[in-house]
Amino acid sequence: MKPEILVMAPSPSAAVMAQLDEHFHCHHLWRVAAPERDAWLAGVAPRVRGLATTGTIGIDAALAARLPLLEIVAVNGIGVDAVDFAALRPRGIRVTNTPGVLTDDVADLAVALLLAAGRRIPALDTYVRAGRWQQGVAIPPARAVRGKVAGIYGFGRIGKAVAQRLAAFGLQLRYWQPNVVAGTDVPRSASLLDLARDSDYLVVCAPGGAATKGLIDADVLAALGPEGTLVNVARGSIVDEPALVAALEQGRLGAAALDVFAEEPAVPQALMALPNVVLTPHVGSLTVETRQAMGQLVVDNLLAHFAGRDLLTPVA
């Protein structure tokens, strides 16, 4: 008999979805209308042994309590800040995620956002489409990115990949995170505040969760300054969003380029109204190739667990 699993969201990969249905008895919560989910879940929850979820959905204590046979939570994504480990750990429920396979695409988007903000590409697109070029409306020059300093907060896989790419554009590099990273010639700033003060661009690649919540605050933004740009491809929770809006509106921060937000998919209207902000809808890993690889890792972790093999990418 196939293990029964609860699937919280679909994968963009048809091959991944087909494998889930082939190997497991899947209960697809995302297919059930919101008003009907509670009653539907009551009927399937007692038999569910595995959960396939995402980094943004995760699993909370309330859902975990409704799944008495739950053995494994397979997260499609790197971030596990939405997983309530306090509820899972006493029950010995294992957690996996999908590190490594999305590094390059997220790093690519971070660089794209930095360039888009630095060279004001969205504003220039609007300038052309609105006919201002044909009208002869003057446009001020942007600043070159080469020679500027990019400070990277969070120097794991993605942070290092961002650094490698930005070096090719002629930027100087610095990083900060609580622990020193061995084997790199990128200098480490003394603190996050110092990193912001040292940088023209502050690129956020740190993990989400309680330890990093709101660390990019008014003081850090002030240190980055009126010519500085914040780039965030990590988690919206890391940035004090009201402080960010205020700094941008008041000219105390030069620009922002954001793929993540505090209350996704809700984006503050004030951010959307600002011309010096570039916005994308949390799509750092949204390529055909990477979503296939992420989904495959979810399937492979579930298969390994139910076959009694070692998990491929367990989360401690």
TrEMBL record:
Domain named D-isomer specific 2-hydroxyacid dehydrogenase NAD-binding: residues: 111-284
Keyword Nucleus: no
GO molecular function term, any single one: NAD binding
SUPFAM superfamilies in UniProt: Formate/glycerate dehydrogenase catalytic domain-like (SSF52283), NAD(P)-binding Rossmann-fold domains (SSF51735)
Span of domain D-isomer specific 2-hydroxyacid dehydrogenase catalytic: 17-315
GO cellular component: cytosol
Keyword flag Cell membrane: no
Alphabetized UniProt keyword annotations: NAD, NADP, Oxidoreductase
CDD domains found in the cross-reference section: HPPR (cd12156)
Annotated InterPro entries: D-isomer_2-hydroxyacid_DH, D-isomer_2_OHA_DH_cat_dom, D-isomer_DH_NAD-bd, NAD(P)-bd_dom_sf
Gene3D superfamilies reported for this sequence: NAD(P)-binding Rossmann-like Domain
Family, as annotated: Belongs to the D-isomer specific 2-hydroxyacid dehydrogenase family.
Designated name of the protein: 2-hydroxyacid dehydrogenase
Source organism of the structure: Pseudoduganella flava
